Amino acid sequence: MAEDETPIRFGIMGCAEIARKMSRAIHLSPNSTLVAISSRSIEKAKQFSIKNKLSENVKIYGSYDELLDDPLVDAVYMPLPTTLHLKWAVMAAKKHKHLLLEKPTALDVKVFDEMLEACESNGVQFMDASMWYHHPRTAIMKDLLSNSELFGRVKAIHSSSSYCGTQQFLENDIRVKPDLDSLGALGDTGWYCIGAILWAMNQKLPTTVTALPNTQQNSAGVILSCSASLHWQEEGTIATFYSSIISHETMELAVCGSNGTLHVKDFIIPYEESKATFSFTSGAKFVDLHIGWNVKPREVEVDSRLPQEAMMVKEFSGLVKGIKDGRLDPDMKWARTSRCTQLVLDAVKNSIDNDCKAVQM
């Protein structure tokens, strides 16, 4: 690799299960390399290295501080519990480590803004690890939604993200522990649902957000399942979502426009890594006697050279490289995207906590 193509050197802070996928993504990305991992115990970090067959050149640390003090680490991927994000994200920024942060980014927008201020004041790139934004399918879908002739104006959106946790998961996972990830399903699967809705609306915040009266919580008050509606008064657009960790697997997004509709059944994690599909219909009407349709949905297939996680790492690393070379300032697009999602997530939580009263944005 030529000198001007020196890869961005990553450290992983925390050996959560999702870190296995991300260590693979860093390896597959052409402009990044993994140089260090850390855990709260050196033994856990060693086991992570063995399990994932990491190179012997990858340094292993038994504390997060040690990794952040490593001058060879350019950027960190941080899959820590949400309650730990503020402390370690701020510390990473102060050490001038660019930050790829696992979602949900924070417990509320006030905490998020503290992290973002640290990133901005230290000139580091911020991005949350919502990988689906970086799949080439997502860009193609956005082009179709932006086509006023084929799609028209967005009128209605529905998204869902759910899975059925095992009994062991529902008793022991950090996502059901109020002292670790108190947002539960809303922060886990709901982050994707809200992000997809705002993506379809070009990150414009809704006028009102209202939780629906079907929230289920565990004995500690952590959300296991919830739904909400979002309304944009000026556009006359409505959106709903369903988020759950006690229901069957879904990752669906449906967008209805004045001239067309778009459906995708696997928007978060495609059924296949090398390709992904969605359906699109434009100008559909019933035929005579209403016994059929004049057009069928068009199935669009999009190939991907790299897994979407590796595409995310590649894009993030390109931004970091530009900053290191003095060619670019941090790209604030990703921080704004995360902040909009956080604001709506906060509004849903507020509505849930107040007997499903509408929250004005």
TrEMBL record:
Location of the Gfo/Idh/MocA-like oxidoreductase N-terminal domain: 8-127
Gene3D superfamilies on file: Dihydrodipicolinate Reductase, domain 2, NAD(P)-binding Rossmann-like Domain
A matching Pfam family: GFO_IDH_MocA
Family: Belongs to the Gfo/Idh/MocA family.
Top-level taxon: Eukaryota
InterPro entries: Gfo/Idh/MocA-like_OxRdtase_N (IPR000683), GFO_IDH_MocA-like_dom (IPR055170), NAD(P)-bd_dom_sf (IPR036291)
Organism (species): Penstemon smallii
Residue ranges of domain GFO/IDH/MocA-like oxidoreductase in the record: 148-262
Name used for this protein in its record: Gfo/Idh/MocA-like oxidoreductase N-terminal domain-containing protein
